[in-house]
Specification:
about 475 residues, alpha+beta, conserved putative lor/sdh protein from methanococcus maripaludis s2 fold, 4 domains, six-stranded antiparallel beta sheet, 32 strands, disordered N terminus
Length: about 475
């Protein structure tokens, strides 16, 4: 323990002992004092407006006295006034009886609790009266030089959006909205396959296979007869055209029928969309029935990442929240996306919810079933909140406090109610206002001085209460 700590402890002991009515002599011996604890006379020549707390040894030794005294070699002890005490918050005694109107009674230990009538706390200590015109008892005053040396730094309580990162694991899945099954609406025979492998990319309109279908040929003949009929019945022509389109006959075949005398026997079937062949279920020469799935296509220009978000975090995740995804195949590369859906049920085994994130995949680098690390910026799209840095909050478990800088070395510990936390800041729901200066470093020191002040005032209030009785 260093000298400063020892000296500070000794001074605190003197103050508390003095408040309790004891005298500290050389060597640290405690003897009952016959002097009242509330006021101490000053030496001759000293201003009577100041109150002397005690006298100290002129050589700086840990020897103190509650009355004027001389050293062994005849030198006077030095007086320490109320406004000169270094290292401690001001500990003024409670106002004497008759000093104005009592406004309220405050907690003797400095807690944010007041009462309009006299009461005791849970330890049996009486609440301390606060008189009209008296400085706010919750305020701690510290010498400005000591504030600077202690490294006290403040920041302004401000309104801003507060993003809380929610992290989870995810798996890449195909975008279900782009899946398409290629089928025929009539029985037929596959003559040739142009797309003969899974994973091949096709463009819309490119031929995938050629097919011969007797039903499609028959409808083409009916349409051709209706077009060239001498009666020129428009009703028959429109009916035949409708049957062609109901069978899904490609538009290129229909246009050719308007001028060609013969139907198309073998039709080259075009790809209905651009995408990748996810499944191939047909081979050349196969006879297929109407409705049989021949291919399954998917557009991979965007993919879904399905993230498993823990139950305790799902409340802050909202649709539209930005998300960052890092796939383990591409470490260090971030793929930006957004939350597009939150499943309406939890997994009973893992207590997680499925959250869908849509991510762009223009070069098809992201493969299905890839593992990913997901970070969702929960709250970034919400309205601004009143926030302070996390370091500003003193959390004792059942009580959260911030220190408000009131200027000129005055600080007020204030109980607050916390909300959401993220980005190195925490939301304040109750206790402070926008624009107030909040201590973010050395706040534990100020809080300790506040508690010391409350303890000293509780001791000094005791003799007055006994005198009043």
């Amino acid at each position: 323990m260093n000298k400063t700590t020892i000296a500070g402890t000794a001074i605190a002991a003197v103050l508390i002992a003095a408040a309790a009515g004891y005298l500290v002599e050389a060597g640290g011996k405690l003897t009952p004092s016959t002097r009242p604890a509330k006021a101490i006379a000053t030496q001759a020549g000293e201003p009577t407006a100041k109150v002397v707390l005690y006298w100290k040894d002129p050589d700086g030794n840990n020897v103190y006295s509650l009355a004027p005294k001389k050293t062994a070699d005849g030198r006077d002890y030095l007086p320490v006034y109320e406004d000169q005490e270094p290292g401690f918050a001001e500990a003024k005694p409670a106002a004497p009886a008759g000093k104005g109107k009592i406004l309220y009674y405050r907690n003797p230990m400095g807690l944010a609790d007041t009462s309009k009538v006299p009461k005791k706390d849970w330890m049996g200590m009486d609440y301390i009266p606060v008189y009209e015109g008296e400085e706010d008892a919750s305020t701690v005053k510290i010498n400005l030089d000591r504030v600077q040396r202690s490294g006290v730094r403040t920041e302004t309580a401000r309104m801003q959006s507060l993003a809380r990162p929610v992290r989870s694991a995810g798996i890449a899945k195909p975008d279900e909205r782009t899946l398409l099954s290629v089928t025929l609406r009539a029985d037929g025979f596959i003559e040739k396959l142009y797309v003969n492998e899974t994973g091949k990319h096709v463009n819309a309109g490119e031929p995938m296979f050629s097919v011969y279908s007797p039903q499609m040929v028959s409808v083409q003949v009916d349409y051709r007869n209706a077009v060239t009929s001498s009666a020129n019945d428009r009703g028959d022509e429109q009916g035949a055209l409708a049957r062609l389109r109901n069978l899904g006959v490609p538009e290129t075949v229909v246009q050719r029928l308007r001028t060609a005398p013969n139907p198309t026997m073998v039709i080259d079937w075009p790809a209905p969309m651009s995408g990748v062949v996810m499944e191939k279920k047909v081979v050349a020469g196969q006879m297929v029935k109407a409705g049989d799935e021949l291919y399954r296509l998917a557009d991979l220009s965007s993919i879904w990442v399905i993230a498993d978000v823990a139950e305790q975090d799902i409340g802050v995740v909202k649709v539209g929240a930005p998300a960052r995804t890092i796939f383990r195949a591409y470490p260090g590369e971030v793929f930006e996306g957004r939350v597009t859906f939150i499943l309406h049920e939890l997994d009973m085994a893992t207590r997680t919810a499925k959250v869908r994130i849509e991510v762009k995949n223009p070069k098809h680098r992201i493969k299905h079933e890839m593992f990913a690390d997901v970070e969702i910026d929960a709250g970034s799209e919400d309205a601004d909140r009143l926030v302070v840095p996390v370091s500003a909050v003193i959390d004792s478990g059942n009580r959260q406090v911030v220190i408000v800088d009131k200027g000129e070395g005055r600080f007020e510990p204030r109980a607050v109610k916390l909300g959401m936390r993220g980005d190195g800041s925490t939301e304040i729901l109750e206790g402070i206002k926008v624009g107030e200066q909040i201590v973010v470093t050395a706040n534990f020191l100020i809080d300790a001085e506040s508690n010391l002040k409350a303890a000293l005032q509780a001791f000094t209030a005791e003799p007055q209460r006994e005198a009043k009785q």
